[in-house]
Amino acid sequence: MQITKAEVIPVELKLQNPVRMASISSDIQSVTAIFIRLETQKGQSAWGCTVAHPDLTGFTPEEIIQTCRDCAEVVKDLHPTNIEFSLAELERCSKGQRPALCAYDLAFHDLLGLASGLPLYRLLGGFRDRIQTSITVPVLPVKESVECAEENTKNGFRMLKIKGGLDPDDDVHRVRAIHRALPNIILRLDADGGYTVEGAIEVARALDGLLEMLEQPTPADDMEGLLQVTRNSPIPVLADQSVTGPDTALYVAANHISSGLSIKVATCGGIRCASEANTIARAAGMFTMISCLIEPALLVSAGLSLALSSPNVRYGDLDGHLNLTGDPSLPGFVLQDGWLIASEVPGLGGNVQLG
Description:
The protein has about 350 residues and is an alpha/beta fold. The chain folds into two domains: about 5-120, 2-Layer Sandwich (Enolase-like, domain 1), CATH 3.30.390.10; about 120-350, TIM Barrel (Alpha-Beta Barrel), CATH 3.20.20. The chain contains 13 helices and 16 strands. It has helices at about 55, 60-75, 85-95, 100-115, 120-125, 140-155, 170-180, 195-205, 225-230, 245-255, 265-270, 270-285, 295-310; strands at about 5-20, 30-40, 45-50, 130, 135, 160-165, 185-190, 215, 235-240, 260-265, 285-290, 315, 330, 335, 340, 350. An eight-stranded parallel sheet has the order 5-6-7-8-9-10-11-12. The relative contact order is 0.15.
């Protein structure tokens, strides 16, 4: 199986509803998805994908697109099934841009699945074939937050991730209101790094017994602050934006900075690096959640494959494709009553339709 062609195809995807986050100054209206298509000598096509937005990945679309094009020049000299060697070469070519490396990581894993005739989640470990996912309740006033939560539960979801971080007191009111309306639904609060240490501890204590977890309460680079929240919180605290790959996962785990890790495939640089971060957490006795950015279904498929592969992955937060319009990737997985169920199609299990 020899690679004969590598295409880099950027696509701007608009959001159905703009996204507000505590860590950014303006709403996100769209993201740029960069698709990679690898064609083999036998005419097979494998797909990879990443996303670019300065506030989500730290790089501009232009930077990631150019790096992906640079990597395309060396791909034809790499063997698809020598995946560790090939990804090491591409890691050098990607010059520290982990989102760019992610696109090729997915494409090479897709090729590996095609070569073996197996779905990727089985190649990675095959621990389960489905996992429950949360769905996001965006930053909204209290009444609208409750209405959004109720609408999501009508669609079968039983886990809600409530976005916050802009106003701790308002977040407490919103969570309490949603819990009153939906007392049997699992609630998570994601502050996106918006709280001070003192504010985060107050929120955690005020919502003890109502929340399953508090995600990234303090800024991503404030490891000492995150540690203090973890030590004083009555509920589990997850590191999210603080985890950007195996190196930061090791630092968080070795210093017991959080209760668990939220791992994103695109942020880490693909399935290989995200899997390494999960292994680090597992060795440290920490649970993981496989999460996502605002991203196409093909990238969600990759996160799902990893989530299904390991018993250490306790939680899924894989709804990043649901707010996109015009996503050219068609998932192979099924979303049913809040559960993501794997496809038995070889590789990533999805399809991409680009005109």
